[in-house]
């Protein structure tokens, strides 16, 4: 199923499937394992459990709305990525999808590295004890203070994003008496969509230095001359929520041809390439994401082949999956507050959260699934729109989905696949209190990011 993909936020294209959700699923009580995290199941009383704990108990203990993160699944996905890429490659979890100190500890224990893109993410990473040499620092406008902090901490790499930044990082490193390992982020001219990629269009955006027109080659020329920098490789990130590997293959090919140009011009073979993140996950049953081992094989094969053709030693590959690791591992639990049928249209189901805990539907036309989780029901399917409690008609969590017609206030419903870019992009709109993230594992649940309180709101508002 096609859907829109976007490089870093703003929506680039609407490729909404036709006739989506015109037919209800055969049994509304069945949980599609594609969209739910690994330890989610329904018990014999019909109540959904995660890590063996009933959602009804979780709601009583932690309240709603809340994100429940399946730690077992998160760790398994980390291991699957690390195993798929093996010891000759590096997996950097993209912290922008969701970062907390507990997550950093899990990454550390599972042997993953971490990509941060702000001073705040760097602070969380360092505080939670991620070894600095396992951190990559990204961003198109890192401040001097952020760069200084990263260089002082000894981050493994800084990904350079502009001509100004090349000089900025070089000076800071030199002043601190060190040489900073860096990669240069290049824009390869691939706009990745789910089932297509459009060459050239993608240069019109803020990230990276374009291969076309020689900007990237010029950046390499400048970086290579500066004592404060050790240029270790080239970085490319083509987009997000991508299912088709073709865009990555074109990107890899173009990055390798830049490596060959660098070898010809400077007589050096850069030892690393990073192909970014962006691998898609299943938000609905129509999505068919690739497995990490398929992705690893496709990327490794293409890089190896292209390097052989260019007479280059195969560089060390790294990737930066965010969504593909954390996305499927969490669901948001809501309590139904009102049920409002609109004759001939659909039924509006209002929950106790909304666009403040999941902005993705409003921002990207993202599609989600939803299920009644506090009980089963044999009632007829009812075409529903799950909406929040914000003062805005665009406050939609799930645009079109079927829920049982006997749905009533007090029922618990859950939206799966909300681990990525939901808590991370949560806001205080309407002075909503951002929900907690609760990690669940082997029958135990613990808060890893607590719910915001009115005291938090009042503390920021200094009067
Ligand atoms: N590496 C770089 C350099 C990135 O810019 C990104 C995402 C990633 C890795 C991780 O991409 P992932 O594997 O998670 O797709 N807020 C949007 C997504 C923005 C992605 C920004 N960059 C959303 O909710 O869909």
TrEMBL record:
Domain Orn/DAP/Arg decarboxylase 2 C-terminal: 332-419
Binding site for substrate: 323, 360, 364, 392, 421
Catalytic activity: meso-2,6-diaminopimelate + H(+) = L-lysine + CO2
Enzyme class label: lyase
Domain Orn/DAP/Arg decarboxylase 2 N-terminal stretches: 73-327
Keywords assigned: Amino-acid biosynthesis, Decarboxylase, Lyase, Lysine biosynthesis, Pyridoxal phosphate
Residues the entry annotates as binding pyridoxal 5'-phosphate: 278, 320-323, 421
Pfam families (alphabetical): Orn_Arg_deC_N, Orn_DAP_Arg_deC
Pathway(s) it belongs to: Amino-acid biosynthesis; L-lysine biosynthesis via DAP pathway; L-lysine from DL-2,6-diaminopimelate: step 1/1
Protein EC: 4.1.1.20
Cofactor needs: pyridoxal 5'-phosphate
Family: Belongs to the Orn/Lys/Arg decarboxylase class-II family. LysA subfamily.
SUBUNIT field: Homodimer.
Protein name: Diaminopimelate decarboxylase
Species, as recorded: Streptomyces sannanensis
């Amino acid at each position: 199923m096609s859907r829109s993909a976007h490089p870093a936020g703003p929506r680039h294209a609407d490729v909404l499937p036709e006739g989506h959700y015109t037919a209800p699923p055969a049994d509304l009580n069945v949980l599609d394992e594609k969209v739910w995290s690994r330890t989610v199941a329904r018990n014999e009383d019909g109540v959904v459990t995660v890590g063996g704990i009933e959602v009804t108990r979780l709601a009583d203990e932690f309240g709603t709305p809340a994100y429940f993160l399946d730690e077992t699944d998160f760790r398994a996905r980390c291991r699957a990525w690390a195993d798929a890429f093996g010891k000759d490659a590096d997996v950097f979890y993209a912290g922008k999808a969701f970062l907390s100190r507990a997550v950093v500890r899990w990454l550390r224990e599972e042997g993953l590295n971490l990509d941060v893109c702000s001073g705040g993410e760097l602070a969380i990473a360092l505080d939670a004890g991620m070894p600095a040499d396992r951190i990559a620092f990204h961003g198109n406008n890192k401040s001097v203070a952020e760069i200084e902090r990263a260089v002082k901490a000894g981050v493994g790499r800084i990904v350079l994003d502009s001509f100004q930044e090349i000089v900025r990082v070089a000076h800071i490193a030199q002043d601190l008496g060190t040489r900073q390992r860096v990669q240069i982020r290049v824009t390869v001219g691939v706009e990745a969509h789910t089932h297509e990629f459009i060459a050239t269009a993608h240069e019109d955006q803020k990230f990276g230095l374009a291969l076309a027109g020689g900007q990237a080659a010029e950046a390499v020329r400048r970086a290579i001359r500066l004592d404060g920098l050790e240029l270790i490789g080239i970085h490319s990130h083509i987009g997000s929520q991508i299912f088709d590997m073709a865009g990555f293959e074109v990107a890899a090919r173009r990055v390798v041809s830049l490596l060959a140009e660098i070898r010809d011009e400077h007589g050096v073979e850069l030892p690393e390439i990073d192909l970014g993140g962006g691998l898609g996950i299943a938000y609905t049953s129509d999505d068919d994401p690739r497995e990490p081992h398929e992705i690893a094989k496709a990327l490794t094969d293409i890089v190896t082949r292209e390097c052989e053709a260019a007479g280059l030693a195969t560089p060390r590959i790294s990737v930066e999956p965010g969504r593909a690791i954390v996305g499927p591992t969490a669901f948001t639990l809501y309590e139904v507050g009102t049920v409002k049928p609109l004759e001939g249209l659909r039924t509006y189901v209002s929950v106790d959260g909304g666009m403040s805990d999941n902005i993705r539907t409003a921002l990207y036309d993202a599609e989600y699934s939803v299920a009644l989780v506090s009980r089963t029901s044999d009632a007829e399917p009812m075409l529903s729109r799950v909406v929040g409690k914000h003062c805005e008609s665009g406050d939609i969590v799930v645009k079109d989905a079927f829920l049982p017609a006997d749905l009533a206030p007090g029922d618990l419903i859950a939206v799966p696949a909300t681990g990525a870019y939901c808590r991370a992009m949560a806001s205080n709109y309407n002075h909503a209190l951002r929900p907690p993230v609760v990690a669940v594992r082997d029958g135990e649940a613990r808060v890893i990011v607590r719910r915001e309180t009115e005291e938090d709101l009042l503390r920021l508002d200094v009067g």
